[in-house]
Design a protein that fits this description.
Layout lengths: L1 H44 L3 E3 L9 E2 L5 E2 L5 E4 L2 E8 L5 E7 L13 E7 L6 E6 L3 E8 L2 E7 L5 E7 L5 E12 L5 E6 L3 E8 L4 E8 L13 E4 L5 E7 L6 E7 L5 E7 L9 E3 L5 E4 L2 E4 L1
Parallel strand pairs: 1-4
Antiparallel strand pairs: 2-3, 4-5, 5-6, 6-7, 7-8, 9-10, 10-11, 11-12, 12-13, 13-14, 14-15, 16-17, 17-18, 18-19, 20-21, 21-22
Length: 297
């Protein structure tokens, strides 16, 4: 009797195990097939494109390779060319992007391979705002109705292009490199390092307002001159500048009053031998931190 019961239990266990194995194999095959389908779909989608005007802006995302796609994985293009740097205005009522044309296409002029387009989110009626060559860098919203873009132009040469979207007014800023706008965005400084070292200040209209530069005694030999560093105070009223002293292998801190024709209001020597100088204003704008060391103004 026990032998019969044992055989029945063994048979049931055997059947159950066999059924589990079959079930497991089916599951593995199912997911393997699903993965193959996903890979095939993704591979297919990489070659599919859709015009930005024909897709919802809410569905656009940027993948890990910097390509813009819609929810179906299709690449977003403008007139057949890939886009980059898609940014919304502060109010999110406008949107802009860079059209990247083929630089190897001989039918496309050299200075028309990178084109900035701006349009309203609602009707997506995009207009060309600026065009340039492959040297064009980034662009950004300066305000709801203003944009700026930048381009390299050679050794220690960086150009900023400002455009008013309402009036169509444009200007070219060519003050130096490493532009840094004041917090109120009314003025900007740029660095000089090679022939002269220091900073030049101007406005968005391309008008130079102030310059503080010193000459290298021996061209490219002054290592300290390459450590020039500047920063605006939180209220945009003052400009702090750390720069190599004239006729001495030392660094000094200079403070200029931006509201009084950049009159120098502070000067002192600072510690030498540092690899870099980290400048940070306190919130009240009455003191400055240089590598975390407080200096009263």
């Amino acid at each position: 009797m026990k032998s019969i019961l044992f055989k029945k239990k063994f048979f049931i266990v055997l059947i159950g195990s066999f059924a589990f194995i079959i079930f497991f194999v089916m599951i593995v095959k199912y997911f393997s097939k699903s993965n193959e389908l996903v890979l095939i779909e993704e591979s297919t989608d990489l070659n599919e494109k859709v015009e930005i005007k024909e897709t919802s802006l809410d569905e656009i995302y940027e993948d890990k390779d910097g390509n813009y796609k819609n929810k179906d994985g299709k690449q977003i293009v403008f007139n057949g060319s890939p886009i980059s740097q898609l940014f919304f205005s502060p109010s999110e009522k406008k949107v802009g992007f860079m059209e990247n044309r083929d630089i190897n296409d001989k039918n496309i002029p050299y200075d028309q391979t990178r084109i900035l387009h701006i349009g309203n989110v609602q009707d997506k009626n995009f207009q060309e705002i600026f065009h340039g060559s492959f040297r064009m860098g980034g662009w950004e919203w300066f305000s709801e109705n203003e944009v700026i873009s930048n381009s390299g132009c050679g050794t220690e040469c960086q150009v900023i292009y400002w455009t008013n979207l309402d009036s169509g007014e444009k200007s070219v800023l060519q003050y130096g490199v490493g532009y840094e706008w004041s917090p109120d965005k009314k003025i900007v400084f740029a660095y000089h390092y090679s022939g002269n070292y220091g900073v030049v200040v101007g406005n968005k209209k391309g008008e130079e307002l102030f310059s503080f530069v010193r000459e290298h005694k021996i061209f490219y030999s002054d290592s300290l001159s390459w450590k020039t560093k500047a920063t605006w105070s939180p209220d945009s009223a003052k400009l702090a500048l750390v720069i190599k002293k004239e006729n001495a292998e030392k660094m000094e801190l200079l403070i200029f009053d931006a509201q009084n024709n950049f009159k120098q209001i502070h000067k002192q020597d600072i510690d030498d031998g540092l690899d870099d100088y980290d400048l940070e204003w306190n919130v009240d704008g009455k003191s400055l931190l240089i590598n975390k060391k407080e200096i009263k103004i």
